[in-house]
Q: What sequence folds into this?
């Protein structure tokens, strides 16, 4: 029986002083000194203004519309009795504001929102016989920003056909360039594994966000996202390959409750329920969101047909806002979520009765405060405390688990404070600030081998491991007509339950601390915009490191409608926190004799990165905006994960260094006569170099020298097209085409290696010999014909495999998704009934994300999934 890890007191964890400190910060926010200007919440901006006639009299009930045609954001307000209007909670971006009133000529203004300071517009309308239309041109659609990024509005997220269990991550993968899809809603950003930072209303979240690590914020709570794929500005550190800036929904300025409620039912017996509502005045508001689901296919599975894959989850998010012209603006985000799911089985594991399960509980409390000090300066502060608790349970019968039985309890509790001061005047937009952060880690882990052939001391004449459990020493093999097994790891023998061993148990606790200060300035200088930044990071974990990091960028308008940009950055990359303690303890300086065969020499160190990005953005008339980017980055101590078999249990590792290059782009067709579309694409080259450090690598051989890692993919693209058939009732149809040329796969360098696989693995890759295909019960043991290979894996020709230039890869795949909806079924002004049908993987294409990957395991893409949603918007 597996002994669950015992609990030990935390060492160097959060103290009561730390928690009280956070409460004091919140109290200071609430009683902060009075200010003299209107306030905006941290992480978002506003556009306000007054509309007058030629005599200076205010215009009441004038129509004001703010748009960003590229992201799809559109809002409309009318001026009040004082001729004023206000658009709050806007993501940092460039906007077009059109003001119209009966009997006056319409007028357009540009508004560039780059800080929490409101952009104020004073508009005078001239008398005219009728309102006139204002045309948007390609020059208007481009951004003079040195940082490569993609803006994603809720209007797009709501119509993308995505899986309910990981909607936010999938929306990022589909909408942003250079991001490679992986299993379980995960993705590889610009050639890296993870290295993603989320900034949720200015709260930094640098730990892993996917359905196997944490309970992510619901996409229903997201107003918009800015996905930074280039060199990150100086205010971001720790994880820099991708920065996702999220602005959540707010209840301010909604005197009548607004929101939606919906229910869905789909394939794999998947009911889902979502509800959100916002209500508030100009000074106080609240937005709340709830979502829940259960399904027979929660995680991506090692078989195309899900076996033992049930799961359910529930998430609650609440944002409370107060805003005053005298006391500043405060918002408090609260999230609580739980997920519980089975670990999918292979056919062999299902036959053995394997029943492994994982639970994740999460919470997050994050107050944010902003105070306008004068018309040019605004102070923002964000405190946060969040926790992820993961419990992994083995089967009741340890020998039902194969090849090993495992148990895990780990907890990650993160708290910190981010404060910055923004100063906007003339050509300058300066921000100076700092962060402090502490992450308390508790890890408890147990493992015992159950398969007698996994670490057998002996093998037969053909090299197959012997299942004789009476043999403990390779020296005894000769007397049994056997030979010594070259793959035998002596250090694992004490933990081989099939040979009378006991469970390996690990307990560890540690607090990882980071501090940073930064200064950056966005300077407008004629046709050029400069981003000049400097950041200093200090990492105090199992090792310590400090680095001064310049971040430099320029964007130049070469001609109307054309922007050229270049940027350079240096960053301190921090190790992953998930299972960091055990992963750093398995080497020669940790657990005795490297019992697991891992390559750790000492704890994982912080890494350093140099990054260069060159790009061009081009607008074509009023229809199309294209953005192309080339990125190159060199990283020492380049990070990745080792997966433990096909479980969600992973161990962070680092490689000596990596060289990654990427070409990516996005082409937008902005809405015209109801038609809109975009294409994102990428080409990623990810070359990693030995030696490796950390992990629990006792089940897979390491590559030699330089190699292409499993985030390397020659080409991927996503094309999404949407067409509004009937604007009055919101009738629309959309479709997505996804193409992936195939990630680097694991341990099948030639056809002979494929023949050595078990029947189930051969069937998974679609191994064939002539007209004969392997099945889960009938393997192919030999093949003498030239027509041989695998339909779902590209196996190099005999003698041609090279870990760098010609590694095995997953076969290319085309996946098609469709969605059709009616947003206002009965054409009502209020309480609109909506109906939506979506189909993921329309053709039911059988394809793999990965196979026998040391870093990911084996997972199939989602089979055809049909979902019908009925709801009401009020």
A:
């Amino acid at each position: 029986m597996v002994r669950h890890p015992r609990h030990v007191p935390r060492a160097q964890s959060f103290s009561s002083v730390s928690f009280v400190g956070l409460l004091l910060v919140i109290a200071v926010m609430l009683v902060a000194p009075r200010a003299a200007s209107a306030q905006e919440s941290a992480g978002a901006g506003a556009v306000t203004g007054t509309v007058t006639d030629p005599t200076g009299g205010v215009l009441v009930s004038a129509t004001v519309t703010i748009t960003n045609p590229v992201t799809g954001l559109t809002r409309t307000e009318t001026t009040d009795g004082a001729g004023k209007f206000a658009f709050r909670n806007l993501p940092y971006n460039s906007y077009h504001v059109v003001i119209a009133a009966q009997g006056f000529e319409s007028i357009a203004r540009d508004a560039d929102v780059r800080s929490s300071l409101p952009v104020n517009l004073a508009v005078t309308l001239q008398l005219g016989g009728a309102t006139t239309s204002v045309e948007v041109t390609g020059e208007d659609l481009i951004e003079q920003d040195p940082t490569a990024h993609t803006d994603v509005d809720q209007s797009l997220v709501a119509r993308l056909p995505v899986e309910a269990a990981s909607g936010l991550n999938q929306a990022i993968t589909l909408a942003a360039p250079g991001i490679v899809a992986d299993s379980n809603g995960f993705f590889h950003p610009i050639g890296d594994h993870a290295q993603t930072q989320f900034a949720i209303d200015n709260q930094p979240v640098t730990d892993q966000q996917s359905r196997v690590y944490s309970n992510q914020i619901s996409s229903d709570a997201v107003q918009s996202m800015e996905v930074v794929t280039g060199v990150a500005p100086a205010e971001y550190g720790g994880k820099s390959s991708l920065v996702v800036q999220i602005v959540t929904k707010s209840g301010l300025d909604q005197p009548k409750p607004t929101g939606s409620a919906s229910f869905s039912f789909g394939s794999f017996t998947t009911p889902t329920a979502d509800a959100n509502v916002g209500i508030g005045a100009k000074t106080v508001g609240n937005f709340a969101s709830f979502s829940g689901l259960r399904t027979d296919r929660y995680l991506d599975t090692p078989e195309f047909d899900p076996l033992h894959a049930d799961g359910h989850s529930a998430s609650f998010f609440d944002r409370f806002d107060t805003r005053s012209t005298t006391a500043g603006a405060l918002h408090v985000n609260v999230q609580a979520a739980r997920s519980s799911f089975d670990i999918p089985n292979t056919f062999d594991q299902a036959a053995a009765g394997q029943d492994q399960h994982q639970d994740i509980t999460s919470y997050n409390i994050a107050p944010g405060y902003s105070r306008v000090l004068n018309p040019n300066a605004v102070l923002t502060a964000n405190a946060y405390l969040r926790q992820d608790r993961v419990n992994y349970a083995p089967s009741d019968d340890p020998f039902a688990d194969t090849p090993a039985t495992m148990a895990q309890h780990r907890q990650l509790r993160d708290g910190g404070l981010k404060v910055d001061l923004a100063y906007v005047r003339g050509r300058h937009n300066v921000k100076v600030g700092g962060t402090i952060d502490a992450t308390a880690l508790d890890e408890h882990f147990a493992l015992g081998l159950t398969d007698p052939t996994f670490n057998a001391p002996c093998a037969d004449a053909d090299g197959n491991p012997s299942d004789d459990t009476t043999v403990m020493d390779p020296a005894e093999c000769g007397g049994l007509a056997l030979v010594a097994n070259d793959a035998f790891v002596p250090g694992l023998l004490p933990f081989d339950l099939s040979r009378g061993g006991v469970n390996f148990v690990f307990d560890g606790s540690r607090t990882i601390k980071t501090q940073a200060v930064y200064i950056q300035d966005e300077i407008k200088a004629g046709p050029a915009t400069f981003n000049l930044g400097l950041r200093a990071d200090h990492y105090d974990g199992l090792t310590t490191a400090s680095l001064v990091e310049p971040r430099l960028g320029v964007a130049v308008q070469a001609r109307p409608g054309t922007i050229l940009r270049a940027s350079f950055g240096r960053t301190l990359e921090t190790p992953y926190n998930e299972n960091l303690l055990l992963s750093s303890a398995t080497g020669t300086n940790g657990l005795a004799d490297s019992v697991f065969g891992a390559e750790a020499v000492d704890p994982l160190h912080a890494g350093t990165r140099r990054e260069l990005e060159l790009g061009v953005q081009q607008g074509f008339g009023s229809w199309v905006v294209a953005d192309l980017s080339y990125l190159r980055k060199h990283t020492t101590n380049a990070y990745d994960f080792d997966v433990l078999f096909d479980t969600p249990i992973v161990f962070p590792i680092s490689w000596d260094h990596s060289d990654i290059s990427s070409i990516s782009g996005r082409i937008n067709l902005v809405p015209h006569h109801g038609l809109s579309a975009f294409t994102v694409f990428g080409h990623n080259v990810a070359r990693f170099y030995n030696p490796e450090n950390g992990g629990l690598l006792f089940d897979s051989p390491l590559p030699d020298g330089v190699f292409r890692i499993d985030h390397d993919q020659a080409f991927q693209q996503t094309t999404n097209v949407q067409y509004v058939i009937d604007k009055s009732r919101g009738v629309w149809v959309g479709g997505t085409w996804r193409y992936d040329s195939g990630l680097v796969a694991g341990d099948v360098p030639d056809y002979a290696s494929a023949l050595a696989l078990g029947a189930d693995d051969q069937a998974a890759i679609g191994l064939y010999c002539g007209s004969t295909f392997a099945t889960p019960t009938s393997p192919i043991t030999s093949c003498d014909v030239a027509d041989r290979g695998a339909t779902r894996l590209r196996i190099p020709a005999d003698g041609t495999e090279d870990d760098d230039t010609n590694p095995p890869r997953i076969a290319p795949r085309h996946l098609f998704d469709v969605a059709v909806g009616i947003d206002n079924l009965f054409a009502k002004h209020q309480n609109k009934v909506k109906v939506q049908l979506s189909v993921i993987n329309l053709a039911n294409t059988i394809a793999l994300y990965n196979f026998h990957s040391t870093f990911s395991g084996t997972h199939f893409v989602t089979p055809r999934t049909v979902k019908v949603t009925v709801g009401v918007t009020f």
In short: The CA atoms of residues 37 and 374 lie 7 Å apart. Residues 1-37 have pLDDT under 50 and may be disordered. The radius of gyration is 28 Å.
